[in-house]
Amino acid sequence: MNAFSIKTEIEIPGLILLISLAVLFNSCKKEKPVLKPDVETTAATEISYTTAVTGGEVTNEGGALIITRGICWNTSADPEITNTKTTQSGGLGTFTTNMTQLNPNTVYYVRAYATNVAGTGYGNQISFITNKLGLPELTTTQITSVTKNTASSGGNITADNGGFVDSRGVCWSTSANPIISDNKTSDNTGTGSYTSSISGLSPNTTYYVRAFATNSVGTSYGNEFSFKTYAVIDQDGNEYYSVSIGMQIWMAENLKTTRYRNGDLISTTTPPTFDIRYETNPKHQWAYNGDERNADIYGRLYTWDVISDNRNVCPFGWHIPTNAEWATMATALGDITLAGGKLKETGLTHWISPNTGATNETGFTALPAGARGADGPFTGLGDGTLWWSSTEDPTYGAWEWQVTYYLSALSHGPNYKQVGLSVRCLKD
To answer: Which pLDDT tens digit goes with each residue over 350-395?
Structure first.
């Protein structure tokens, strides 16, 4: 046997021994077990009536990959993945999820979870309560576009408080605090602003209006507005209230129209102070001093031939009162020496001092509109007002009735037909 053969024979058994020892060592080493993941649950935020936001954090995978993670919830404690849950992918770290289709005013219990091959691990339990449904919140829109029989209003629903608004509109009554069992409109659904058209109203009547909104909780109401419908509208579209004095119904303002009942224009003069003393049957109207702002406040001044024209200056259903009808009003007011005070607007906003005896207890609201002389000048604004009657006087022209700032009486007398005086219409 040569030397090389002897060395080889010695090395081979040593190698075999080393391999055997390594196998023996490895066979004695234990494998590390796989555990369920460790999870923490995040507190709920953004809680509403039917939703919330929560989540969790996987702090330890448990020695194996995370198969799925999420949250589970129930209305009973200790929810599991067999209850309602969300499902997300991912491993270690935080995650957020949305809870939906919840019920209002309900307690929910929530746990985060994570699943690996060893099973499902759950986080700590949290709980919260969803918001309670409430009545809608809204305001009423100011009243506009008032006529004899109609008006406009509406509302603005700023919050439905969790309940869908399935009915909205305005309700109204002649008594305060109207409700939906009174008259109402129906103006679609949902939140936001809307416009309501109110119709079927009675003339010269005070109404109370509130917006309303209804959801599953009930009906709520906005703030209240009141308004009064007009009694009559003239040919120019000017609107007037009316007042009852005795058995009569009078306009509560001086006439403002520039047209006859058939639509024909009533002429005026240029300039407003033009002398008309020598005209035959002059038919003119003016704003005091030719200023239309005065017409808006005090009405217009008319010659007698305008108010006696068969085209009629008063609106349909109304007429120029006769001297006898003015006298009937005076009788209804009792003592004629005090009747003027009962007709005059109180205070000194329009009247000059002392505005003697003014109480306006009738609501007639007489304003000191002044007059226009036949030769052109305008006089007496603030001092008093004179109204035509339809009754002629053989000496001067026609009868007029008047109130002044220094008397409480309602007086009358004849005047020239060419002067410009105010008009109050009387209901037929």
So the answer is: 999 999 999 999 999 999 999 999 999 999 999 999 999 999 998 8
Calpha distance 188→196 (Å, rounded): 10
Q: Cα torsion for 265, 267, 268, 269, to the nearest 10°?
A: 150
Could you list the residue range(s) of the whole structural domain that residue 144 is in?
Answer: 137-228
Is the residue at 212 inside a domain? yes
pLDDT in tens, 40-64: 999 999 999 999 999 999 999 999 9
First and final C-alpha spacing in the chain: 156
- Both tokens of 14, joined, read 């040593």
223 and 158 belong to one structural domain: yes
Q: How many domains does the chain have?
A: 3
Structure tokens at 412: 């009358």
**pLDDT per position as a tens digit, 89-143:** 889 999 999 999 999 999 999 999 999 999 999 999 999 999 999 999 999 999 9
CATH code of the domain in which 109 resides? 2.60.40.10
Report how far apart, in Å, the C-alpha atoms of 164 and of each of 133, 168, 189, 216, 253 are: 10, 11, 8, 7, 47
Distance CA 413, CA 395 (A): 11
Residue 97 to residues 36, 90, 159, 240, 399: CA-CA distances in angstroms?
21, 13, 26, 65, 89
For residue 395, give the H/E element and its range: none
